[in-house]
Design a protein that fits this description.
The chain has three domains: 345 residues, no CATH class; 219 residues, no CATH class; 177 residues, no CATH class. Helix content is 48%, strand content 16%. It is built from 24 helices and 26 strands. A hairpin with a 5-residue loop joins strand 22 and strand 23. Helix 2 packs across helix 11 and helix 14 packs across helix 22. The longest helix is centred in the C-terminal third of the chain and has 35 residues. The protein is elongated, with a radius of gyration of 34 Å. 40% of the residues are buried. The model has no long low-confidence stretch (mean pLDDT 82).
Length: 801
């Protein structure tokens, strides 16, 4: 019996090649998209799960509650580490400090000068207890070596890169930023790519404390996101208990006497990869909302493919009525016919699943261009096997159930007389509803694409409050020997014909860096919000085209401590007239008072996701680790080559590390660009599948209206009248779908835009464009079948039984 079912199914499919090809195309496309989304979502959810104590590890973060709201910082003050170890002796606490853009110099016996490497992932300083919190495999040495000063541990790949073979790296000395000599005393196995702690070099924490190079301080009011502390809680201590104790200890360590309240709290390791408010040391954050959106899109795509199958199956059911009638007359039961149809569906879905695996394998190498995954994903895993099997089973049920019920329910007499009509197979009401569902989904995705592209265009053209074009940013060092050479280096750069301005600074105007501190204004007690700082020379303002609303820049080589502030700071201080701030004094932490000589107009201090921060810009040479060069814009490569020539002359011990500022800013929005591309891809898939669905429904209607079309042609109707007959109904269906897609598209994209403080508005034109696109696509999809029906011989149409 089973063999007979497969024979019959094979013959039916062979005789309806177009039907089979359309169904397999739609289902394979949908299943391939779902499989790729499944792999991406599983990968994102796998971050840090290689850690044995994954559920027991927490990061200690800082919470500042001000009258304006609650702000979080992933870092804590340096002295908090020892305080936490004293107050929580039963908890394992480890320290981690990160620094990025590190130059590593490795002695080279074959050359006079050492080999130089720029490590963008940077150098991490850890203490031995960090490895009691996190598990990493040591292949040489152990964590105790990081209790010694001036030592470092490398991963296997990093050690091989520096020395050719990790086995000979032990005991060798490398120089960090030409300032610290560190001896290799440990080798670790490479870390997995799915981690937010991309550690390749681990210096000892005591080196950080003793060197003074990275700004270690015992000030409780200074917090940097680069210094983070992690706790591993024992089984008998809950995170709620620790959070309660941390809240009680806040007044012990912080000055919570005013309206501003600071405390520390725990953030689960499981939350770090998904929380954009606190960020991580990895290359991206993926919110749960993003993963849910991806999963929903995958479900909608496969649902649309199933709708196509139902439409085509029921359209074909009318042409199979005699076959069904004959089977019933010859003793075939309804259950047998039901099994037969489900078997045919299962065969098509199996073929589609195999095609989906092939499509997914071909697309997999390109997945890195649309999501932030640099590792090669493995398509052949037990999880993906279970997923594709479960998806195929679900698609078989969703696609085949209704057609199987319809076909197996045909009455034998009606079927043999070919009296099966749309009413017999349930009418086209259901199919209309399914097509409406398809177009509602596709229109919502079109809306998402338009909004995402518009937001990215807005970001690209937004007024940041400064000039970012043709500015080369050189990563330097702030050690004493470099500082002495920075001024003559700058003077020589200004002699280059293509160079307009040069500035020495700690940070460019807009970056993902945040250096904040407590502060006081006009000889009053400390304010209840954080002051953010950037340090720069007097040429900073003209190099980046910053405009003043009051006062002026401080003078070159100013040693009296004059500063410039931004308008946001004055707004938070309730100073409405910027001129009033000129001459007033301001103090960072417990430092000396400095005079305000200028107020710059607000510029975007970070990405457009964040509000402009209250800012002070001051000259402090020891923090000048960035050299910004404004070029004239003509012959940029020649100017950059000249800059490198001077760099090699003044800083031969440092590798030339240059980038254009506009490119750096564009990298802020890598994920948003990928999301916009994802919407484009899935909107295209939705449109493709919708077209197949329309073809299915118009095929059904052509079969049902064969005689009607013939009569209309005999009575003088032209081809355009017949085409209009079919197109009119689909246009109405698209209009109904529009009423569903409007709230759906607005809800999804408004939530996405909430990630940005500065954003585009969702205007009615966006929805109008989506419905126009849908109508045009529908007319194209319907037109082919409708024209073919209109051109059919009316005599043959009228003779059709």
């Amino acid at each position: 019996m089973i063999k007979n079912y497969f024979k019959t199914a094979y013959r039916n499919l062979r005789h309806h090649k177009t039907y089979v090809l359309i169904n397999i195309s739609g289902l394979a496309t949908g299943m391939a998209a779902c499989l790729l989304i499944f792999l991406v979502v599983c990968y994102e959810l796998s971050y840090e799960k290689a850690q044995p104590a994954y559920e027991d590890i927490y990061r200690v973060v800082t919470q500042d509650k001000t009258p304006d709201g609650i702000e979080y910082n992933p870092g804590i003050p340096y002295p908090a580490l020892e305080a936490l170890r004293i107050d929580f002796p039963a908890v394992t606490t480890g320290a981690l400090f990160a620094t990025f853009g590190t130059q590593v110099s490795v002695p080279n016996a074959a050359a006079l000068s050492p080999k130089k490497f720029i490590e963008n992932t940077g150098l991490f300083f850890c203490d031995p207890q960090f490895f009691d919190v996190f598990f990493y495999k040591w292949i040489a040495g152990n964590s105790s070596v990081l209790g010694q000063p001036n030592v470092i541990a490398l991963t296997r790949t990093t050690a091989a890169k520096y020395f050719g073979d990790w086995k000979i790296a032990m005991g060798k000395v490398i120089k960090i930023n030409n300032a610290l000599d560190l001896r290799v005393e440990g080798i670790l196995e490479d870390l997995p790519a799915n981690t937010d702690l991309p550690i390749t070099m681990m210096g000892s924490y005591i080196t950080l404390k003793n060197s003074g190079y990275y700004g270690y301080t015992t000030d409780w009011g200074s917090t940097t996101s680069n210094f983070q502390v992690y706790m591993r809680l024992p089984e008998n201590i809950s995170s709620a208990t620790v959070n309660g104790q941390l809240a009680q200890l806040a007044n012990k360590y912080y000055k919570n006497t005013g309206v501003n309240k600071r405390k520390n709290t725990l953030q689960a390791l499981a939350d770090i990869h998904f929380n954009p408010a606190l960020g991580n040391f990895g290359d991206h954050v993926t919110t749960h909302a993003t993963l849910l959106t991806l999963s929903m899109i995958g479900f909608f795509i496969i649902l649309m493919a199933c709708i196509n199958f139902i439409n085509l199956s029921t359209a074909q059911a009318v042409t199979r009525s005699k076959e069904i009638g004959a089977r019933k007359v010859l003793g075939g039961s309804r259950s047998q016919l039901f099994t037969q149809v489900m078997g045919e569906t299962g065969l098509i879905v199996t073929l589609a699943a195999l095609a989906a695996i092939l499509i997914a394998s071909l697309a997999l190498p390109y997945i890195k261009y649309i999501v932030s995954i640099n590792e090669n994903l493995n398509l052949v895993t037990p999880e993906s096997g279970i997923f594709i099997f479960s998806t195929a089973l679900l698609v078989t049920v969703l696609s085949g159930l209704y057609p199987a019920i319809v076909l197996s329910g045909f009455g034998p007499v009606m079927a043999l007389k070919n009296k099966i009509s749309s009413a017999t197979v349930g009418g086209i009401t259901l199919r209309r509803g399914l097509v409406i569902t398809q177009f509602a989904i596709s229109q919502a995705l079109i809306v998402g694409t338009i909004v995402a592209v518009s937001q990215m265009d807005f970001i690209r053209t937004a007024d940041l409050g400064f000039n970012k074009d043709a500015i080369v940013v050189l990563s330097s060092s702030s050690d004493s020997s470099v500082l002495l050479r920075q001024k003559p280096f700058k003077e020589n750069l200004l002699k280059i014909p293509g160079v307009k301005h040069v500035s020495l600074c700690s940070d460019v105007p807009s970056s993902d860096n945040n250096s904040g501190t407590n502060f006081a204004f006009n000889h009053q007690p400390d304010e209840n919000f954080t002051l953010f700082t950037k340090f720069a020379d007097a040429d900073y303002f003209k190099t980046f085209g910053l405009e003043f609303s009051a006062g002026e820049a401080y003078q070159p080589d100013d040693t009296s401590g004059k500063v410039v502030v931004n308008e946001t700071l004055l707004k938070k201080l309730n100073i409405k007239n910027t001129e009033e701030a000129i001459g007033k004094d301001i103090r960072m932490g417990g430092g000396r008072w400095r005079q305000i000589v200028g107020v710059v107009k607000d510029f975007k201090t970070n990405s457009l996701r964040e509000e402009i921060k209250p800012l002070m810009i001051a000259p402090r040479k020891k923090h000048f680790s960035i050299i910004a060069v404004k070029l004239l814009g003509n012959n940029l490569p020649a100017s950059q080559a000249e800059i490198q020539r001077y760099w090699d002359r003044f800083f031969p011990e440092y590798a030339f590390d240059a980038s254009f500022m506009d490119e750096n800013i564009e990298r802020f929005y890598q994920q948003e660009k990928q999301m916009a591309l994802l919407y484009k891809i899935f909107a295209s898939l939705a449109i493709f599948i919708s077209c197949l669905g329309l073809y299915g429904l118009v095929s059904f209607m052509v079969v049902q209206k064969t005689k009607e079309v013939g009569i209309r042609k005999v009575l003088g109707a032209g081809i355009h009248n017949i085409v209009l007959l079919f197109s009119k109904e689909f246009t109405i269906l698209i209009g109904v779908a529009f009423t569903i897609s409007v709230p759906l598209g607005w809800f999804l994209m408004n939530n996405w835009l909430n990630n940005f403080v500065y954003r585009v508005s969702i205007h009615w034109q966006v929805f109008a464009v989506s419905v126009v696109i849908s109508i045009l696509i529908a007319w194209v999809a319907v037109g082919f079948k409708a024209i073919r029906a209109a051109m059919a011989n009316p005599v043959k149409s009228l003779r059709t039984e």
